[in-house]
Amino acid sequence: MTCTSSTFFYQSALSKIVITPLRVNISHSGVLYAPLGQAIIIPCSASSSPLMLPRVKWTLMSGRTETQILVARGGRVKVNEAYRGRADLLNYRSSPEDLSLWLLETRSSDSGHYRCEVQQGLEDTSDIVQLKVKGVVFHYRDAMGRYALNFHQAKRACETVGAQMATLSQLRAAYFDGYEQCDAGWLEDQTVRYPIQTPREPCYGDMDGEPGVRNYGMMNPQDQFDVYCYVEEMHGEVFHDPVPQQLSFQGARSHCRAARAQLASAAQLYLAWSEGLDNCSPGWLSDGSVRYPIRTPRERCGGRQAGVKTVYRFINQTVFPEPSSLYDVYCFRGHSRAEHR
């Protein structure tokens, strides 16, 4: 066979191409943290020579469940219906080596292990990173009754218990995780809203018969409602201290001091609940309220819904208990500076 000059040139060029295997890398080491209700980019990059537009699959692994988030192939990205409008590959079409996942309005249920899997030709490889979404939204009511807080009082009420007013994104994220509360409350944008999973007559609001976050719109700051607060982290631990004889509010405060701790705040108890605390014993908190955290619902512990349960003086769920009433106690002990580092 006669080799033409063009054939020789082509074979010579092929001999100079260095083919490297496909590699996938998530550059973040350790746990990746994201605040509730915010956007996050989970990094992932691919490298090989040559690198064509690869097939990409992102999967969430939580417990024993695997959920496909999206698949990209040939320049097209197909997003799972459950993530529609909330997940995408920002640079896939313009930069085939950048396969980072963009996730909007993070929810607690987004916590888990994320796998970035890449396929090119016969090669298939992947990398994994853990994501933990931090923060919890909770409803808060004045000690003396329902709908007793104007906008400025609501802001102070959240701050007093160690939290801040929730944003709409945070309340929406909590709603999509199953949160329901049929009480109108202030948000930080001066709107008044509440989340409803199961529509019923007293809770229809502006969404007659439909689930969703009800909206009263922006209200006069002197109007009075409850409030939705948000807390993201605490540097310490909440613990329940069973006592042989239950304590009054002052007795509970002294008990925590004797344990080199202090009464836990409502925000700290809600955050401890979101991280797994479960106890069916009502106990005093620093604001004079009595509450208890339930992760696994049972009839004798506040009914069929998980959450932080509140004990009220009256059957219409208003007014905190008398300070002389006897209950257990929830204390908070902060980490030392050395531990915090």
Automatic annotation (TrEMBL):
Tell me which InterPro entries the record gives: C-type_lectin-like/link_sf (IPR016186), CTDL_fold (IPR016187), Hyaluronan_bind_Proteoglycan (IPR050691), Ig-like_dom (IPR007110), Ig-like_dom_sf (IPR036179), Ig-like_fold (IPR013783), Ig_sub (IPR003599), Ig_V-set (IPR013106)
Q: Does the keyword Translocase apply?
A: no
Show the GO cellular component annotation of the record. extracellular space; perineuronal net; synapse
Residue ranges of every copy of the Link domain listed in the record: 136-231, 234-333
Q: Which cysteines are joined by disulfide bonds?
A: 182-203, 280-301
Where in or outside the cell is it found?
Secreted
One Pfam family, short name please? Xlink
UniProtKB keywords: Disulfide bond, Glycoprotein, Immunoglobulin domain, Proteoglycan, Repeat, Secreted, Signal
Its primary localisation, in coarse terms, equals secreted
Query: Source organism's superkingdom?
Result: Eukaryota
Q: Determine if Oxidoreductase is one of this entry's keywords.
A: no
Query: What is one process in the GO biological process aspect for this record?
Result: skeletal system development
Annotated Ig-like domain ranges read: 21-129
GO molecular function annotations of the record: hyaluronic acid binding
Q: What name does UniProt use for this protein? A: Brevican
Instruction: State the organism of origin.
Output: Hippocampus comes (Tiger tail seahorse)
